[in-house]
Amino acid sequence: MGNSSWLEIGAFGRWYLLQKDKNYNIVSDFSFQYGIQSNFGKNTGHSNSFRFLTGPELYFNSSVGIELLVGYGSRKELYDDGNSNFYRGFLTTIGFQIHLEK
After folding, report:
1. pTM to 2 decimal places
2. Which of 41, 77, 97, 98 has a CA between 20 and 30 Å from the CA of residue 68?
3. DSSP state of 81
4. Sign of the alpha-carbon torsion through 61, 63, 69, 71
């Protein structure tokens, strides 16, 4: 196994479905990324990936919350030597959200 590196860039969007004055909310998250890979001249390629997640977020106070999201993701990697990898499946994430206030 050699050294390799991925550089990915993309966009994401988040939607909060309920009123923001509650101590909970429902979050939907969508993202798309494009990446390039380098194995220091031996094997290069690119990738496309997307994911869609949704789930509850519970707030501890007006600016800190914890979220539990479930969803689906897909990733396709194409290499210059003709090989490819394809991944897809269900995802789960747990994370903290810190919202900055004025």
Report:
1. 0.76
2. 77
3. T
4. positive
